[in-house]
Amino acid sequence: MKTMKKEFMFSVSMVLILSLVAGCSTNTSTDKPSASPAGETATKAPEKTAAPSTEKVKITYSMWGSEAEGSETQKAADKFNASQNRIEVKVQAIPWESYMTKLNTQATAGQLPDTGILKEDAVIQWSSDGMLKDVSDMYAGSDSKPLDSLAYKYQGKTVAYAAANEILLLYYNKDMFDKAKVPYPPNVLDKAWTWDQFVAAAKKLTVDKSGKHADEAGFNPQSIVQYGASVENLAWQLETWALSNGGGFYNNDGTAVRIGEDASIEAIQKVADLYLKDKVAPLSVGQTDDGIQRTIIAGTVAMATNGQWNIGTSLNAAKEAGLKYGVAVLPYMKEKVTLNTGGANVVFSQTKHPKEAMEWLKWYTAEENNWGLISSGIWMPTLKKWYTDETLTHKWVDNKNFPPYAEYKSAVVDYAQSTAARPASWFFTNHTTDFNTLLGSALGDVWTGKATAKDAITKNLEALKAANKGKK
Q1: Consecutive sets of 10 residues in the chain, 472 residues long: mean pLDDT of each?
Q2: Domain 2-29+55-165+342-383 and domain 168-339+427-468 have a common topology
Q3: Could you confirm whether domain 2-29+55-165+342-383 is CATH 3.40.50.300?
Q4: Among the listed residues 86, 464, 168, the one whose alpha carbon sits nearest the alpha carbon of residue 342
Q5: Residue 279 — left, alpha, or beta (φ > 0 → left; ψ -120 to 50 → alpha)?
Q6: Whose CA is closest to 148, among 158, 135, 163?
Q7: What is the pTM of this model?
Q8: Hey, which bits of 207-281 come out as E strands?
């Protein structure tokens, strides 16, 4: 779980927020299905049957978090329990550091909870081990289901849905753009900047101590006081640019590595060159997930890429302190791409009550039951109807926590359901933690210019392929 703090989508603050809405406990149900009498004949008088039990089916939901956070989640479960008379949910919080260890121990003992939240990188591994239920039909007959890009899939079956939707965006400081008289980056996908347009704008927004811009004669890159851009270079987010350049990290089913292709290598080098050659970005070694705090909120960078969750976890407070920021779609190299991600809600295969577990998950992840996270900008809705029904979209976006409605709807709501939105690789690929950890380490010298992306990736390509297969 510690690697997730560096390599995964969720920042530490986001993880803690997630833990407020995910839960677990030990399976305490003693209900067993009654067996049919063997050897019955058609002439045998029917036996008396007991009246249907009015006792609730008891299920458990696992979460990572403190005891206090578990208590908060139990309050949500209590509302569900009171809303019907068939199912009772008990929540058990497990500390972040020992969460997966605890689940593995429970799995070995055959004592897994009925349902719970699972690390993004663990979903496909657990599916391949037969530990998760197929939830493809969980939303059958429903008026809406989660966006397709939020489905975790193994061998063509949906084995989990993300608890929340998140996409990558371009944030920018409006005051810096206004001062430089540079047009704001587009919030409409059809008008997205090319990579070259992005770099050109970044040069006009990069300023040295004497007031010279990066595209002006006499500019001194050794005395920069304001950078034009920052592209988050955490390993998992870099896949955005490999895909945008016509490459990728993996093939379509995640079983083969593509990061060694020229298009993938070129994309990563372009990100590095923002600092090394273009002189428009600060140095980042891709090890900490606090990019927006270090750039937009710190007031040192005019525009930066990162996840939508930053609106709720950090930008709202900065906005109240006077920051004027905007949101836009990402620039692109050859294809327009953003990534979807989100921690997974799963139903464990050891449960005796899969239908009840799915009913709880549908209720729990419904927007009205976690509205505070959505209205604050930490989570985005998962169900299609919130993106397609304008009345619901207005209910979601028309509040002080978001940028202006038209801007956010185009740059976020429409963007998230466009062809540009693709699932992050852990939605369909095994062993992504080992792969991303190795890749992040291999690229360390690329960011500082000690090695090229081609040299670093070529040198580590066989190890990256082995990591994709689960081999050390």
Answers
A1: 36 36 34 29 35 79 87 91 97 91 96 94 93 94 83 94 94 98 98 98 98 96 98 96 98 96 98 98 87 95 96 93 97 97 94 97 89 89 92 95 97 96 95 94 97 98 97 82
A2: yes
A3: no
A4: 168
A5: left
A6: 158
A7: 0.84
A8: 207-208, 224-226
